[in-house]
Structures are given as C-alpha cells and as structure tokens.
Specification:
This protein is mainly alpha-helical and 480 residues long. It folds into three domains: 205 residues, no CATH class; 80 residues, no CATH class; 81 residues, no CATH class. It is built from 19 helices and nine strands.
C-alpha cells in the first residue's frame, strides 16, 4: 500500500523507491524479531511458574538470584530503550514524508496514536523527541547511542517555553545548546523523574515573565450527590493549595496507619485499609478537627524555611537553587502563600549553637517533636540511597544505636522510612553515616556487599553547577 501512495505522487526517483522497499523489508525483520521476543517472554513466565512451584521453597543463594534477575532487568531495559529509538526513528520517517498530512490527520501525535495504539500524551512525547535533533544534536546523539532515556530527552525538549518567539527563542535555544554536554551527563546519572523535575525548574525560571502560570489560578472544588446515595468530591487546586492539602492528608494518614496498627496488635486477620480509604478517613478527621466538632484546637501544617532565606530580598534570591519554604511532604510553597500563612501562624524558631541545633545527648532516647521537625527540614525525605519517601513517612533512626552509647543529636540521627528502618533492624542491612549529616547513608546488604550509590553527591554537585550557569545568563533570555 505504501508503494501505491508513492506511485501516485509521481515525484520519487528509482533510488528513492528502492529505499522505501528496503524500509518495508526492515519492518518485516522487526515483525520476526517481535515474534522471537514474545516467545522468550513466554519462556520467562514458564520459568517463574516453575520456581514458584518448587517444593520447600527456593534455597538458591541470594547472590545467584540477584545476578540472574538483575541481568534480566538490565536486558529488558536495553530492549525497551531500543524500542523507543525505533519508534522515534520510524515516526520521524513518516513525518519527513508528510504521511500524517496525506492521510488526513490533523496532527502528527494523533496520527501516531492511531497507528501505534499508544495514548496521545505518549505520542506527543515521541514527536517532540524526534524533532530535538535539529536544536540539540548532542542530546539526540546521546539518545541514539542509548546513554539516556526517552524521558530524559523529552524533559529537555520542554525546557524552553512554547510561547518564546524570535530573538527570545533563539537566545534560549543557544543557551541550552551550550549546556548540552552537562545536561547529558546529568541525565546519565539521574532517573527520568529526577531529571524532569530539574528541567521543570529551569523552565519555570525561563518563563518567569511569561503568561500567568495556571497553577496560581483560584482553586475550585465540586461536591455532588450520586444516584446511589453516595457523594462525589473532586477539585482543581492551585499549586500551593494542593501542596498544603496533600501534606496535611499525608501526615494524618501516617497517624491513622500507626493508630490502626497499634489497635490491631498481633491480630492476624487485620488488613490495613487502602490508601484511598485512609485518605478519605484522614480528610474527615481534618474537617472535624478544624470545625471543632470533635475536640478544640486547630488544623495546621508545618512549613520550613531557613531564617537567612526569609530575610533576603526575594528578587535577589535564586529561585532555582533554593530558598523556598517547603512542607514535610517535600513540597515547595510560594512566597505569597508563605507570607499569607505567617500572618496567623505559630512560629517555632530553631537556633544553631556552634552548628549543632537541639542536641540532647543521652538525656533523651526518643526524638522530641521539635527535633523531629528540624530533621524533616534538613533531610526532606528518607536518607536511604535513592528512596523518595517524604519526611512525614520517616522515623528518627540512631545511626549509632542507643544501646551502643548513641546520642539523640542531629548529626547521628537520620530519617528512614518504615520499610528501610525495618530492613536495618530486622533483616540485617548495615547503615553507617554518609559524607555529611544530610547526604545519603552508606548501606551494606545482609551479605556485606555495598548497596551501590549512583554517585548522588557528584550528581547533586553537577546539577547545582548547571543551575548556577542558567542563573548567570538568565537575564539574556528575559530582560529585567
């Protein structure tokens, strides 16, 4: 059919027609390869069933299991990356030949979604990635060589705001082009989610004087009865409102989990409610507490900010490198919301004495509440390498155990989520200090081998260097 379409155009040379015939042959080879991969996938499922049916359980050494499953995971990831590269290349071939237009599709992403069966969001990402080579060839080359993922490239492709035109657009492109090597290096050492969050910060800074960000629009909430006598609650919240609500719900959900777990004790029939059920119960408790229906008091949320950042002229503060207030769910809060909340807030100042705030030594084993909040401000999330659980979901862990003479001081305390806290105390994982009091911990597996850290400290340093470079030249893109 492709040949008929080309014959109607009348513009193809014999050599061009030959190339399209070769491409069709490549498609047939890919179809055969898909059949082989499907067969291999079926064999893997059979192997999994056989292992699950083994009498007496699997007695194979951990190192053997880890090596086999790790090799499979890495191979599958490489296959997925090759699949992304094939999808991008094949899509670009179609776009270069104006196939979507000739087939009557109103957009390239719609054509791809219809032909491949993926959703429009994924199709739009593939189209953006395919077009990035002209602007940022080093980024495209890193993707073609398999050094970075599709998501990394898509994050870079969305750094420059879509409304930039003319000289403003040209300057922004040149700025990002100058930093391609650093961006690729950073992408190689970060997950797609980490890198996408980093690129969003750059875009926000570039777009500081652009159209109003929709995240600042007024929040709206809908509450309506359904036909079966239940109620449907939904809403569209601003960035700050959403961050505050999410933090309060998360904090109350953790209290609910602990309360239910303690009430159940050793009851084998106890089943923890789902997150959705816990969130609904947490919302009702917060509403009742706030209205005073259940007990006097008020509903609140802890916000953290360094005093020196609060005292700085906000125009002189680098909004990329830091200075924003944040919640214990690791969500940033804008200055406008911060000052509005401070008007009626209880403020708890924490002062450092020779660099050591709130050190209790051996006088207290359990971490006092104020120190727990200080640690939440310092750590922001679980200190276990690569764990992103927010501070609200962590326990204060003595790196030097209390039984061994450890103290309740910030430098020897680290926030660990419940899963990793239990992994250390109950399952033999070793935990020692990182390079400083806020860096990821050094972790040893039960067999003594180290949990490989993907150079988190070097990654953070490179990230800050890239952001500092953006901050230095941002005025060239958006005039003051």
């Amino acid at each position: 059919m492709e040949g008929h379409r080309e014959d109607r155009s009348g513009d193809d040379t014999p050599d061009q027609r030959t190339e399209w015939v070769v491409l069709h042959q490549h498609a047939s080879e890919l179809t055969e390869l898909v059949s082989q991969v499907s067969s291999l996938s079926e064999r893997l499922r059979s192997a999994r069933s056989a292992l699950a049916d083994q009498a007496g359980g699997d007695k194979t050494e951990f190192s053997t299991r880890a090596a086999a499953t790790g090799a499979l995971a890495e191979a599958a990831a490489k296959l997925a990356r090759c699949s992304d590269q094939l999808t991008v290349t094949s899509t670009q071939l179609a776009l270069d030949a104006q196939v979507p237009l000739q087939e009557g599709c109103r957009s390239e992403r719609l054509w791809l979604a219809q032909r491949s069966g993926i959703n429009r969001h994924a199709a739009a990402s593939i189209v953006r990635v395919g077009a990035i080579g002209e602007r940022f060839p080093l980024v495209a080359a890193a993707f073609d060589e398999g050094r970075i993922h599709l998501g990394h490239v898509d994050a870079i492709s969305t750094v420059i705001p879509g409304h930039f035109k003319g000289d403003q657009l040209a300057t922004a492109i040149e700025m990002v082009r100058d930093l391609q090597v650093k961006l690729v290096t950073l992408a190689e050492e970060t997950t797609v989610d980490e890198f996408a969050a980093f690129c969003r910060k750059i875009r926000i800074r570039l777009d500081a004087d652009g159209p109003a960000d929709r995240s600042s629009e007024a929040s709206t909430v809908w509450l309506e009865a359904t036909l079966d006598g239940r109620w449907m609650l939904s809403g569209d919240l601003s960035a700050d409102d959403g961050a505050l609500v999410a933090t309060m719900l998360l904090e109350r959900m953790e209290k609910l989990r602990n309360r239910l777990r303690n009430e159940a004790g050793d009851d084998p029939a106890f089943v923890m409610p789902t997150d959705r059920e816990l969130r609904a119960r947490a919302l009702m408790e917060l509403l009742l507490d706030g209205s005073g229906a259940s007990r006097p008091g008020r509903v609140g949320v802890f916000l953290h900010i360094d005093l020196e950042d609060l005292d700085v002229d906000r125009e002189d503060l680098d909004v990329i490198l830091g200075g924003n207030a944040h919640t214990e769910a690791d969500l940033d809060i804008s200055d406008e919301t911060l000052w509005g909340l401070l008007a009626g807030a209880d403020i708890t100042p924490v002062f450092n004495h020779e660099g050591s705030p709130l050190s209790y030594g051996r006088t207290r084993r359990l971490t006092p509440e104020i120190l727990r909040h200080v640690l939440a401000h310092r750590d922001r999330r679980c200190r276990w390498p690569h764990c992103n659980q927010p501070a609200l979901r962590t326990n204060s862990h003595h790196i030097e155990h209390w039984e061994d003479g450890g103290t309740t001081d910030p430098e020897v305390l680290a926030g660990l989520c419940r899963f990793h806290h239990l992994a250390h105390h109950n399952h033999g994982w070793g935990v020692t200090r990182g390079t400083d009091s806020s860096s990821p911990l050094r972790v040893l597996r039960p067999n003594g081998s180290p949990l490989v850290n993907r150079a988190a400290e070097r990654r953070r340093l490179e990230r800050d260097q890239v952001l500092a470079r953006f901050a230095d030249i941002i005025a060239d893109v958006i005039p003051a």
